Amino acid sequence: MPAFFIPSVDPDDLEAEYARLAQKVDSAPQAHDKRIYSISWKREGAEWTATVGEQLTSHEYVTVGKGINASLRDKRGGTNDTVTAIFPGPTFLVTHDGKSKVWNWPILTGEPTRVVYFDV
Questions:
Q1: How confident is the model at residue 117, as a pLDDT?
Q2: CA dihedral (53, 93, 79, 17) positive or negative
Q3: pTM of the predicted model, to two decimals?
Q4: Does residue 6 form part of some domain?
Q5: Could you list the residue range(s) of the whole structural domain that residue 27 is in?
Q6: Given 28, 30, 86, 96, which is the most exposed site by the fewest CB atoms within 10 A?
Q7: DSSP H/E element including 108
């Protein structure tokens, strides 16, 4: 995993920007070893993944056809929102650049199915 970063933020400004984002979502800045790089969670049958610096992605398995001709297909999707930070809590909070105007800001994910931390 990479070292901690926020997309489009100068390394000298990282801590101040991270604190600003945390305050904006009413969360606390996390210790370096607890900063989240990526999470996955389920929403309405799809598994979504938010990874800092990348666009939100989703996939779900859908049944195509009926009876003996039925098969499962992996349906992939996502939005063009770039993830800027992820904060833990009873509901995890994902901040993003809001390009798609699809998601609220921040995204409240619920219980994650996978959590990956930045390297320290």
A1: 97
A2: negative
A3: 0.86
A4: no
A5: 11-117
A6: 28
A7: strand 107-108
